[in-house]
Amino acid sequence: QVQLVESGGGLVQPGGSLSLSCAASGSIFSRYPMGWYRQAPGKQREWVATITSGGTTVYTDSVKGRFTISRDNAKNTVYLQMNNLKPEDTAVYYCTHLGPLTYWGQGTQVTVSS
Predict the structure, then answer these.
(1) Which residues are CB-contacts of 97 (< 8 A; sequence separation ≥ 6)?
(2) Rounded distance between C-alpha atoms, residue 34 and residue 10, angstroms
(3) Closest Cα partner for 57 from 70, 72, 74?
């Protein structure tokens, strides 16, 4: 059973930055891709970014150039650095483990507002 625990959400002004972390346990972490999704109020959950086991990264267009996904296999942790945040980035952010089965964290709230 894989467990994922996100942290780092909060309230930030437009143009600000936040860094999210997701600690994984119960998995051979380094073998599998990891990803971040988000769900805004009243909207469907959407994919944000993925990092492969080899470190290749892909992003949804709306966050390219502003968000960076990374991983530290020694710490079983994946990160999402979010810069130049916009109000439309407001959402609950979920970490996901993309192994033989997909696991989800509990989510962390990110609110971008002045």
Answers:
(1) 2, 4, 24, 27, 32, 34, 103, 104
(2) 22
(3) 70
pLDDT band at 112 (very low <50, low <70, confident <90, very high): very high
Q: What is the dihedral of CA 45, 5, 106, 94, to 10 degrees?
A: -10
Task: Name the CA dihedral angle for 101, 77, 8, 98, rounded to a multiple of 10 degrees.
Answer: -20
DSSP string over the chain: --EEEEE--EEE-TT--EEEEEEEESS-GGGS-EEEEEE-TTS--EEEEEE-TT--EEE-GGGTTTEEEEEETTTTEEEEEE-S--GGG-EEEEEEEESSSEEE---EEEEE--
> pLDDT, tens digit, for every residue of 34-64?
999 999 999 999 999 999 999 999 999 999 9
77-82 and 46-51 beta bridge pairing: unpaired
Query: Tokens 């892909």 map to which residue?
Result: 58
